[in-house]
Amino acid sequence: MGDEAQSSDEHTKIEINGIKIGGQIAHAHNLLTVAMETGGVLAAGAFFKALAEDLGTRLAGTIDSGTRAAVRRFLRRQEEEASGSAIAGFDLRTEQGWRISMSRDLSAEALAQLGDLCEAEPPAPGMSPLLINYGRAGWEAWGGVDGDYVRYRWEPESKRWATRPLS
């Protein structure tokens, strides 16, 4: 047994800072070194975990607010398109005070006539400002002359307003 103990002691001999030590001291040193390395790894792990959580939270907050805003805009557009509350049309005013209602589905033919229509003479002297829109029959206008309600139709060939009977 003595030889076995001695060979075990020889086996555990190490050198620390130029000093040879062995036996129980060498074993304690090895355990202490392992414990310190383990403690360092655990402490670094906790530190890196906290750092990653903080960066992850910041990144998630940044992405989250930007993503939320983009999703809100997208949903608002979808809702407007579905409900038809998107801009369905708008009105133009001419120099004569006429109001022209424009819609999103105005044909190219109607747009081509718009310049002539705006520059045309009023259909009757002393007329109130016209309300104009584009219908199935083309450009139509409504206005008042001497207290009477009058309806007109645009004639693109002659570039003038023609009286249209009220129906």
Q: What's the gyration radius in Å? A: 45 Å
* Tally of contiguous helical segments: 3
Can you give the mean pLDDT?
76
Number of strands: 8
Q: Class by helix and strand content?
A: alpha+beta
List the secondary-structure elements in sequence, H or E. HEEHEEHEEEE
> How far is the first residue's CA from the last residue's CA?
127 Å
Overall outline: rod-shaped
Helical fraction equals 40-55%
**What does the main sheet amount to?**
6 strands, mixed
Indicate the proportion of strand residues: 25-35%
Low-confidence stretches: 1-9
User: Going across the major beta sheet, what is the strand order?
Assistant: 3-4-5-6-7-8
Total domain modules: 2
